[in-house]
């Protein structure tokens, strides 16, 4: 209902050519959040960031009943720094007060949020943030918004996916050892995100370093092949 109301307001500000076309704008099935606290959560986070205060909330995950359930039996106390949208999802980027690094939280999975009176930890006190928080850099390094540290990664790729690589990693990448068909890429990226991304482009990308990341991707691909082999043998 909020989406429909907003579309109606926007169309009311437009000319006749826009109004004749908005009937073709649709939301993809399954993309709409079912958390009715979403806008209230955004409001509280915005207030917390503006006032430099901490927030406490319940962080949830989905069960097979398609409903949200608390991930832990206690609240998360978080120092909030930024809200951002990536891949059609909205995230709170902040520091879980028990640790000293950045974490990413899906805003539509947050419930029961409370604005606390306690001051938030300055972002420069978070590990790796002594020069402040840079959102474009953070987004480029956290492709799928996995939490954790970023590290240098080197991979060999087929040049046919160069557009995809630029789309995912931005311009903060280094190319070397270029041939007609392939090129070596160096990028700083979240370890878990790169592991996931390398599987997605496994036909075109080979991880060269670090060795433990290359081994993890190899293991993932072996397990996937094994699962498909076992599945076919049961048919």
Task: Please describe what this structure looks like.
By secondary structure, this protein is α+β, with helices and mostly antiparallel strands. The protein contains 7 helices and 10 strands. The strands form 2 sheets. Strands 1, 2, 3, 4, 5 and 6 form a 6-stranded antiparallel beta sheet that branches. A hairpin with a 2-residue loop joins strand 3 and strand 4. Helix 6 (191-200) packs across helix 7. The radius of gyration is 21 Å and the shape is globular. The termini are far apart.
* Uncertain stretches of 5 or more adjacent residues: none
Silhouette: globular
Mean pLDDT: 86
Strand residues, percent: 25-35%
Helix content: 25-40%
Radius of gyration: 21 Å
The biggest beta sheet is recorded as:
6 strands, antiparallel
First-residue to last-residue Cα separation: 46 Å
Spell the H/E element sequence: HHHEEEEEEHEHEEHEH
Structural class: alpha+beta
Number of strands: 10
Count of helix runs: 7
Keywords:
alpha+beta, 235 residues, six-stranded antiparallel sheet
């Amino acid at each position: 209902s909020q989406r429909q109301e907003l579309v109606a307001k926007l169309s009311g500000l437009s000319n006749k050519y826009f109004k004749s076309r908005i009937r073709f704008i649709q939301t993809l099935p399954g993309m709409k959040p079912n958390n009715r606290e979403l806008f209230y959560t955004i409001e509280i986070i915005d207030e917390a960031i503006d006032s430099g205060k901490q927030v406490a909330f319940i962080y949830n995950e989905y069960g097979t009943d398609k409903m949200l359930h608390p991930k832990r039996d206690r609240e998360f106390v978080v120092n909030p720094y930024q809200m951002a949208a990536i891949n059609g999802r909205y995230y709170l980027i902040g520091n879980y007060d028990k640790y000293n690094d950045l974490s990413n939280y899906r805003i539509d999975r947050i419930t029961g949020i409370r604005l606390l009176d306690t001051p938030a930890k300055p972002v420069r006190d978070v590990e790796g943030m002594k020069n402040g928080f840079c959102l474009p850099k953070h987004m480029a390094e956290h492709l799928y918004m996995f939490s954790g540290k970023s590290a240098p990664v080197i991979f060999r790729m087929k040049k046919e996916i160069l557009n995809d690589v630029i789309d995912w990693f931005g311009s903060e990448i280094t190319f070397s050892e270029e041939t007609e068909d392939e090129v070596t890429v160096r990028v700083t990226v979240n370890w878990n995100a790169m592991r996931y991304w390398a599987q997605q482009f496994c036909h075109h990308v080979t991880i060269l370093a670090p060795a433990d990341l290359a081994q993890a991707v190899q293991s993932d691909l072996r397990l996937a092949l094994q699962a498909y082999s076992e599945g076919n043998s049961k048919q």
